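Hi R.,

As promised on Friday, here is the backbone we talked about, encoded as structure tokens. Could you run it through your design pipeline when you get a chance and send me back a sequence?
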């Protein structure tokens, strides 16, 4: 979303904070994120989740992560092994909860008060149907249908409720991991970036690419990604830094130190 870590800190400072119209926002002071940027990270404890460094990891991604770890060691950071044992449940859990929430929240976009309204429709039912058909793209429609199924009678407890229980276990994993580490370091994805539209024909494969990022969303903690290398084909590889809840200052500091010690953020992919 930004060109470098400094811009990220500035942007976060502008958008963070309590919104009285949003019941999900937290009313706590917003720190000066830019002031947190420093290159001294001596003694910072960085956790490496064993479930994120798996046998199927792309060799170029593994090499980039090894080089990033070496960079942090030179900067004085310490590394500890941690475990997030429910990582393998994250994709299924997320795509049950997220689709259910999409189905529920997007129900209001019926062309009456919210969203696109079909100009050609006649009658209320037709107008709602055509408005939603025209206004939503294929992926949104897919998620609405999946979520409606998960929330339907007879399946609510079996899918949605069970997914929420697993989400609690994933949150517990992160809480325990942060008992030993200040920050977690992981790849952003198991592979380098794929081409635009490459996986749209196989949504499941596209969803599986999220395996390393969606646990953060389920746990409700903070994370950021930053450039960490390129594949042999010139495709970008991202590194993810995960922090404790409201630990944005720490991950920004760790990211800034890495950015200043490397040149990845100044280079562009050659495809």
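Update: got your reply. Pasting your designed sequence below so it's all in one thread:
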């Amino acid at each position: 979303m930004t060109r470098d870590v400094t811009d990220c800190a500035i942007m976060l400072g502008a958008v963070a904070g309590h919104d009285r119209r949003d019941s999900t926002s937290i009313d706590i002071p917003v720190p000066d994120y830019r002031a947190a940027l420093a290159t001294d990270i001596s003694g910072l404890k960085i956790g490496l989740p064993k479930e994120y460094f798996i046998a199927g990891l792309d060799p170029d991604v593994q090499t980039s992560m090894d080089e990033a770890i070496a960079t942090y060691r030179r900067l004085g950071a310490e590394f500890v092994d941690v475990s997030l044992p429910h990582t393998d449940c994250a994709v299924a859990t997320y795509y049950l909860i997220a689709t259910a929430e999409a189905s529920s929240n997007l129900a209001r976009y019926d062309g009456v008060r919210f969203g696109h309204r079909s100009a050609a429709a006649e009658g209320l039912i037709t107008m709602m149907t055509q408005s939603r058909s025209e206004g939503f793209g294929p992926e949104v429609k897919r998620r609405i249908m999946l979520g409606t199924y998960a929330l339907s009678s007879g399946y609510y407890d079996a899918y949605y409720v069970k997914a929420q229980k697993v989400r609690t276990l994933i949150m517990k994993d992160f809480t325990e991991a942060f008992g030993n580490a200040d920050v977690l370091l992981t790849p952003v994805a198991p592979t380098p970036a794929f081409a635009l539209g490459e996986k749209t024909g196989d949504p499941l494969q596209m969803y599986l690419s999220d395996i390393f990022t969606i646990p953060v969303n389920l746990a409700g903690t903070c994370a950021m990604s930053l450039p960490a290398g390129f594949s042999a084909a010139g495709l970008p590889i991202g590194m993810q830094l995960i922090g404790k809840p409201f630990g944005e200052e720490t991950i920004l500091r760790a990211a800034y130190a890495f950015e200043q010690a490397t040149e990845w953020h100044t280079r562009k992919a050659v495809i």
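One thing I noticed while checking it: Strands lie at 45-49, 78-82, 183-187, 222-230, 236-243.

Thanks again,
M.
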